[in-house]
Amino acid sequence: ALPLSSIWLTTPFPLEIVCYYLLLFSILFLKKITTARLTAVLALVTLLITTGYTCYRQHSARTDTIAVLDVGQGNAVVIELAGGFTAVVDGGGSYSPQYNAGERVIAPFLWSRRISHLDAVIITHPDADHFNGLDFIIKRFRPETIWINGGNAANNSYTTLLDMAVDQGATIHVPLSDETLFGNSQTRFYNVADIHLDGKNGSENDRSLAMRLASQGKNFLFTGDIVEYAEQKIVEGQKEIHADVLLLPHHGSNSSTSPLFLSAVAPEFAVISAGRNKSPLFPAPEVIRRCRSAGCTVYNTAQDGAVIFTVANGGKLSVSTTLPTHR
User: Fold this and answer.
1) All domains of the chain, ordered by start, with CATH?
2) 205-231 pLDDT, tens per residue?
3) 3-class SS of residue 279
4) What phi and psi, each to the nearest 5 degrees, are found at residue 106?
5) Residue 74, Cα to own-chain centre: how many angstroms?
6) CB-CB contact of 244 with 317 (8 Å)
7) Bridging pattern class, strands 64-68 and 307-311
8) 282, 276 in Cβ contact below 8 A?
9) Which whole number is the average pLDDT over 184-189?
């Protein structure tokens, strides 16, 4: 493709669309219509004001938003913190030559939120359904930092992705146990796992990063694809893992979300990120029953679409879905 033959922009407000057309027609008829110059100036000033307002709103917001996106069989979470910090946790899903989760789901969601830059990307582990959409995201949103678990250097597509990220100016880090990845005075996003650090114990899935977001008194736990071995180690290590919202490990597989782990986390909401028609593997009926017996409200992106949590100033937690099918 020719350079600048296409340009990706955040989703415009209706007023901005009107102003773009007014500006275009004003330029075309600048010499023929006396009011064209004034119209062009007014349209341009309005566009500058709306752009400034968007920037102000993002940086002055007092709410944290955590969105578990519907990417099919995969994981992608967008975290927007009060003050404008934005991160993506994983970015992969169902894949075909005609479908890329980054281009078709994650990027449009970010643009709809008027986000054009990411501060951080976290890849819990190098399974394709957790990273195969991130090439598009890294190229378009240029994150400053990439956090990884340090594993699977033999995965060519994964190493190519990381090399590309470095070429784009990102720095690559492997978090230590309990290391804070980012946060502010009201929030902290940190790693609660350490199995990934020795690279010997457990399976590749067990070496997923497991991260907790403490957000204005509410807590979220993101666990990649850890299975029962890692769950037990995390509980035995007396990590602080209680969470109001748990993104179920391994897409709700019965190899994860053991009774021991579920009891330690004690979530109010359990979210499954899985593809349609993947049950009874993803999620397993036993896991659904386990969560409901523990008193959890269960959401599944395959049925509910994106599941979006908002933590308002003062710790009020609310939840919405993009498909009105949840009961």
Assistant:
1) 14-59 (no CATH), 61-321 (3.60.15.10)
2) 999 999 999 999 999 999 999 999 999
3) coil
4) -70, -50
5) 12
6) yes
7) antiparallel
8) no
9) 93
Sign for the pseudo-dihedral over CA of 291, 293, 295, 301? positive
What are the start-end ranges of the E strands in 93-191?
Answer: 120-122, 145-147, 171-173, 180-183, 187-191
b/e 138-176 (16+ beta carbons within 10 angstroms → b)? bebbebebbbbbbbeeebeebeebbeebeeeebeeeebe
Question: Which residues on neighbouring strands pair with residue 309, listed in sequence order?
Answer: 66, 319
Give mean pLDDT, residues 297-303.
Answer: 96
Residues 23-78 pLDDT 10s = 888 888 877 777 888 888 888 888 788 877 777 666 667 899 999 999 999 999 99
DSSP for 181-246, written as a single string? EEE-SSEEEEE---HHHHSSSS-TTTTS--EEEEETTEEEEE-TT--HHHHHHHHHTT-----SEE
- Sheet of 211-215: strand order equals 180-183, 187-191, 211-215, 218-222, 245-247, 269-272, 297-300
What 3-state DSSP class applies to 172?
strand
Place of tokens 């694809």: 225
Over range 232-250, report the average pLDDT: 96
In single-letter form, the type of residue at position 222 comes to F
Of the ranges 25-29, 135-139, 246-250, 269-273, which one carries the lowest mean pLDDT score?
25-29
Any residues with CB less than 8 A from the CB of 61 and at least 6 apart, and which? 80, 82, 83, 84
* Number of C-beta neighbours around residue 1 at 10 A: 5
Amino acid (1-letter code) at residue 244: D
Give the H or E element holding residue 134: helix 134-141
